[in-house]
Amino acid sequence: MSALLVRHGDVLDGATFSWLQGHDVLAVDGRVVEVGRSLRSDDARMVDARGLRVVPGLIDCHVHVTAASADLAALGRWPATYATAHAARLMRDMLHRGFTTVRDVGGADFGLARAQAEGLFPGPRLVFGGKALSQTGGHGDGRQAGESAAEDPCRHLSLGRVVDGVDAVRAAARDELRTGAHHLKVMAGGGVASPTDRIDSTQYSMDELRAIVDEAHAANRYVAAHAYTARSVNRALEAGVRSIEHGNLIDGRSVELFLEHDAYLVPTLVTYWALQDEGREFGLPEDSWRKVAEVLDAGLGALSLAADAGVRIAYGSDLLGGMQRHQLREFRIRAEVQPPADVLRSATTVAADLLNLTGEVGVIAPGAHADLLLVDGDPLTDAGALADRIRTVIQGGEVLVGNG
C-alpha cells in the first residue's frame, strides 16, 4: 500500500467551487480516500501545502500528442519509433504543466495509452480517439492540389484517415472503435492546417455524419467534430455529435442547438494566437498560415456568446509542435471574457463530464484519482495562478513535479 497525505492546504470543493480552508487530502494506492481536517496516516508520505491552494489535476480536452511538428503532412512520413519518442516527450511536458488527463482528438492510439498507463513513460492519463475521419479533400486530407488522386491520402496526415461514403465511414468508425477508441473524431468542416479545403466549407453529407454518430452510439461512445462556421457546427449538432471542437464562427442558432442537444463546445483559442506568431517557425506551411486570420479574431466572441447562454464549455488547446509549451496560456485568454472560476471548471468538472469520467478526475473527493496541483495564488479569481504559479504536480498519489 502506498499513501500520501497533503496537509494544511486550501482544497477546492468541486461541488461549490469554494475553498475548504486548512484541509488535508489523504490518498491511498492512487485514489483519494478522505478530505478533512487533521487527518492522520502513519505510513503516508507528507506534503506540506500550507499557504497554497490544492486543485484537481487539469484536463485538456483537445490535444494531439503525436503532433511534434506543425507540418502535419510531414508527420505521416516519420518512422513510428521516432514519432513515438516525440509523443512521449510531449506528454511528459504536458504532465509537468499540470495536465494529468488529456483527450487526444487525432493521432494517439491504444499503444500510447497503454504505455502511459503501465508507467513506461510519464505523461497524462490518455483518453484517445484514434484517427480522425475525413472526406477526400477535407481537413484530414494532406495531399496538395497538384498531387495525383492515386496517392494514398492517409500517408500525408498521421492524425487522420480519409474515407468516403456511408458504408466506408461505418467501416472506418467500427475499426477505430475496435482499437479501443474512447470517442470518434470527424472533420465536419474546413481547417487551417489542411492544404486544399476552405475554412467555410462543410464536410461529409448528413447521411455520412449520422452513420458515424450511429456507430459511436452503438458502442456507447460519442463523436467529436472539428468545425468552425455556424453552418458546419449546426449540421454536426443536428447529426448528434457530442462536442464541437473550435467553433470560432458560431451564431445564435448554434447556441440553441448546443442547448437542445446537451452538447459541449471545446474552444482552442491559444492555438490561433500561437500559429499567428510562431506557426511558420514550427513547420506550418505558408498557405495554412494565411488561413489563421479567418478564425483568430472571432474566437473570443464565440466563447462569450456560448458562455452567456449557458453552453457547457470544456478546456482545449490544440497546439502543435514547439507551440505546445503555451498550453496554460488558454487560461489567460479565456479570462478576458469568462470569470477565472469558470475557466477552471472547464478544465476540471466540465471536462470530466465530457470525457464520461465524472467523479474519476477533475475533483478532489473520495474515490477520485489522486491528481492534485499545489498552486501559489487563487485560481478562482486569478487565471494567472494556473498559467504560471503551479508549484507541485501529483498524479495518482505520486509527487512528480516539485516537493510541496
Automatic annotation (TrEMBL):
A molecular function GO annotation: hydrolase activity, acting on carbon-nitrogen (but not peptide) bonds
Domain Amidohydrolase-related: 54-398
Region (Disordered) location: 132-151
CDD domains: Met_dep_hydrolase_A
SUPFAM superfamilies referenced in this protein's UniProt entry, alphabetically: Composite domain of metallo-dependent hydrolases, Metallo-dependent hydrolases
Highest taxon above the source species: Bacteria
A UniProt-annotated Pfam family: Amidohydro_1
Protein name in the entry: Peptidase M38
